[in-house]
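Our preliminary data section would be incomplete without showing what the modeling component actually yields. Below, a chain of 249 amino acids is followed by its predicted structure, encoded as tokens that our downstream tools consume directly.
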Amino acid sequence: MGSPPDEIPSAPPRDESAEAPARRFQLRLDRDRKIGFSILFIAFCAALIVSWKAGEAVRPKVAEPPGPPTSEGLAGFPEHVDPLAALELAHTLTEREQLRRILLQGVGADGTVDMRAPGAIVRYEFDSAAGEGPEPPRPVGTVRQVHYCGRQTVLIRADGIAAEPDQPRAMCRPAWGEPLPDPRCGPRQLWELALKRGASPDARANIDYYRAQEGPAWRFTLPEGPLHFTMYGDCEHELQGAGARPLVP
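Predicted structure:
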């Protein structure tokens, strides 16, 4: 006898062995698609980074405008400013890394400067190696110039310490030589020598740290008297004649 009319014939069993290759193919296809998208995403990010780096490389590096004068961190201000102790602070106020000169006016016998005194100045001059540091403005994408060294001055005056506007177009000075090292001695040691040579302890001196023909040098001058001398940068021996002359004007 046949099956009753209300019975539905059962479906034939699924052949899982035939579906397995198709499923494995689909899984491999999904995996390859994810890998492909990942590679494209990484390549896109890398291209963005390279583009950003290239843009930074051709973007001119312009100096930040200097801030207002401040006495913060300036030990002894205003009566007893130690120019050597303030040198590190001066370095932080400029993007120029090379010390070129220190000029002091009104230095007392203790080696400090009273910034309240008329004409008292502590002046630091910095520049950069050729083609380094802040540069003159130029159109984005153009090649930076390499024949300038730039220059920036940091001053201590009666109102505190501050940098003057950067001079990015300052040319490199011919035969200027190496930048000055940090001083190995300073105004206090120079005043000790001056006192031994008859200087009045109440006088005020002008002192210049610069590069002479023989190397780093200190020049000591009493504006109100005939006493003046130039010492090598370690204050150990005196420079005379051509050896004491500035390397350039």
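The longest strand covers residues 98-107. The chain has three helices and seven strands. Preliminary results of this kind motivate Aim 1 of the renewal.
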